[in-house]
Design a protein that fits this description.
mainly alpha, 9 helices, extended
Amino acid sequence: MPKSKKSTSKKTAPKKKIDLKKISIDPKKIKLPKVEVKGNLKPVLKIGGMVLLIIGSLALIDLAVQYLNNDYSVAVVNGTRISKNVWNDRLQKAYGSAVASQLIEDQIIKSEAKKADVSVSKEDIDKEVDRIVESIGGEELFNSALEANNITLAELKDQIEVDLLSTAILKPTLEYTEEDIKEFFNQYSDVIYPEETAALEEGAKLDFEKFKDDVEEVYVQQQVQTELNTWLGEKRAEYKIQDNSTGKPKYGFLTITTNIVNNLLDRLQNNSEE
């Protein structure tokens, strides 16, 4: 009998299933392929840096020129600036003397108020500002008026202080009666109180007693302004005034020291008299 042939096929073991959830990958062990950069980037970066530097320098120069044009010029016409020095020189020649005179008089009033121990409170100044704001018609119109007159709020308050000080100094020297105030009221009541006057019936008049205190304040202010020029003229003669707006500055030996000593002696004398 012929021998049976043995099967030559090999038996394969069953494949194991791979559990993907149990496989862990360490990112540090993953090697990425190297990417080779053709050429050298240093020249490109260098050129880019130089361009940025040039643009930055031009921007700074441009800002500097703008600063000169805006802060040191009163105007710029087609790129040509008109310097503030020329502008200020023209202003000083036209108005310098008058402004200097006003500032001198303001300082005299402040000095005389200090001598007389007269002062004005911040509340008094703010009250006057509020009155002006109300009379103009509100905060917005008030700010517009300041801008139109080229004056700041601080400058307005300083002028109000000077006016109130001059009133406080001169009011005790005024001589007037109630009849003077009443006569003033009868003459100017329609100007001082236009709305109240317009609301009256034909032939009627405002009650003096109702407005007497306010009218007296207006009357006193008017009298102070009338007397102020004469008073300032007399006080100017008592002060050593060097007005550099009308002449060249004067220099002397120990001038400042002498003035300080004289002021101290005057104060000591005033204190001893009191």
